[in-house]
Specification:
The protein is α+β, with helices and mostly antiparallel strands. It has 6 helices and 8 strands.
């Protein structure tokens, strides 16, 4: 009988969420100060939030703001964005790790996958599952994503006219207990 082996899902930095008061103003600032262009992302229906994407190849920066206060009133995601903005202003706020096995990550963390979707301005529908978004919102832990799109449609591959070479996110520094973070990431 062959030895059993543990199958581990692959994790990679997918995106960093930067909460902002105004999507267009934040996009102009990133372009002027860092040479990084962005593209319109879309709306998170039911949450009252919207985004702009700074594509960086296989990863991206997501500028996120509350864009519909009425819709946002009942959304934990929009409440978190508003709280982050009131506490620290426009700033990086969350890390999302991409996995190829969202079900396994869900079992490991004890969180059910949450299916989400949005339609880009060009009409292409993007679909994905998230795990542990609530832990990111309440505990500052990374959350997890598995995309259900063609690789070319991943937001990191959008076309943007950067004035500076933009090839990905080299590192992200997280605060907190290193053992808890390692355990949360699955020992990776």
């Amino acid at each position: 009988m062959p030895p059993s082996r543990t199958v581990r899902s692959v994790l990679a930095t997918d995106h960093v969420i930067v909460v902002v008061h105004d999507l267009d103003a934040a996009a102009r600032r990133l372009d002027q100060q860092h040479g990084l262009a962005s593209v319109a992302g879309g709306r998170h229906v039911g949450h009252g939030t919207g985004n702009r994407i700074v594509p960086l190849g296989g990863s991206y920066i997501e500028l996120m703001a509350v864009v519909d206060r009425d819709e946002a009133a009942s959304s934990p995601l929009a409440s978190w964005v508003a709280r982050q903005l009131s506490e620290v202003g426009d700033a990086p706020a969350a890390l999302c790790l991409r996995t190829d096995d969202i079900e396994a990550v869900g079992r490991r963390t004890g969180h059910e996958p949450l299916p989400m979707r949005r339609t880009r301005p060009d009409g292409v529908e993007l679909a994905w599952d998230l795990v542990a978004l609530d832990a990111a919102l309440t505990d500052g832990l990374p959350f997890f994503i598995q995309w259900h799109v063609n690789e070319a449609d991943h937001p990191g591959h959008a076309v943007a006219e950067h004035r500076r070479a933009a090839v990905g996110i080299a590192w992200v520094e997280l605060g907190g207990d290193p053992d808890r973070l390692a355990s949360w990431r699955g020992g990776v």
